[in-house]
Write a structure and sequence with these properties.
The protein is mainly alpha-helical. The protein has one domain (2-226): MetI-like fold. It has helices at residues 2-12, 23-55, 59-71, 74-85, 89-113, 117-125, 130-160, 163-166, 173-182, 185-219. α6 packs across α7 and α9 packs antiparallel against α10 (185-219). This is ABC transporter permease. Keywords: Membrane, Transmembrane, Transmembrane helix, Transport.
Length: 227
């Protein structure tokens, strides 16, 4: 009970919320690391996944190579990047992007690849161009699987972005590292709770987006199977 009260007290102190080392600043840093890494990962993985699904040549090899990066320790990638690039925020981003590409790439490839070939042929016979077929047929049908990869990468990024603090940068991981250094248990628990809360909120937002998009596409779906 005393520990619960101590954690509550830590959250209730205004000094812990404001300033360079405050909760709001660290939260903003954490969201920045996650958002930038996710955007870069999507920019790489989504087009590559679609390309591999449509041409299939070397698909398994490419996906296997990216999955090797997922098996590498994130902190090790950060340290290696620091040695090669220098002490820059980009070193953390490289590590986070490396581990977030595989779930997005794999799910995009599988989702597009599983779209019924007869539907694609029907779309071509209707005069659909490649871009139209992707946005009006393939993406709506594969969306849930692709988005599942996105959600997996997002939650994983939120948890793993704490490595930025190990490398001397910011983010919510600072509360864990600094708390361990000072033997400040309420701060450690507070940092862990915020990381968990951010992951839960992100999952909820993603769930709402997925529900909205699925309903939208179902309402205006193309009935190719009837043609």
């Amino acid at each position: 009970m005393n520990m619960i009260a101590s954690v509550y007290l830590w959250f209730s102190l205004p000094d812990n919320w404001l300033g360079e080392n405050g909760i709001l600043t660290r939260l903003a840093e954490h969201i920045y690391y996650v958002s930038l890494s996710l955007v870069i990962a999507c920019a790489i993985a989504l087009p590559l996944g679609v390309l591999l699904a449509n041409y299939r040549k070397g698909a398994q090899v490419a996906i296997g190579l990216f999955n090797i990066g997922r098996a590498l320790p994130s902190l090790g990638i950060v340290i290696l990047a620091i040695m090669l690039i220098g002490y820059e925020t980009s070193t953390v981003i490289i590590a986070l992007v490396t581990m977030s590409i595989p779930p997005i790439l794999t799910n995009t490839y599988v989702g597009i690849d599983q779209v019924d070939t007869s539907l694609k042929q029907a779309a071509r016979s209707m005069g659909m161009r490649r871009g139209q077929m992707f946005f009006q047929l393939e993406l709506p049908l594969a969306f849930q699987l692709i988005f599942a990869g996105f959600r997996s990468a997002l939650v994983q990024l939120i948890a793993t972005a704490t490595i930025a603090a190990y490398a001397g940068f910011g983010g919510l991981g600072r509360f864990l590292i600094d708390g361990l250094g000072r033997n400040d248990t309420p701060q450690i628990i507070g940092g862990a709770l915020m990381v968990s809360a951010l992951a839960i909120v992100s999952e909820w937002v993603c769930s709402m987006i997925e529900t909205f998009m699925v309903r939208k596409w179902r309402a205006g779906k193309i009935e190719l199977s009837a043609t």
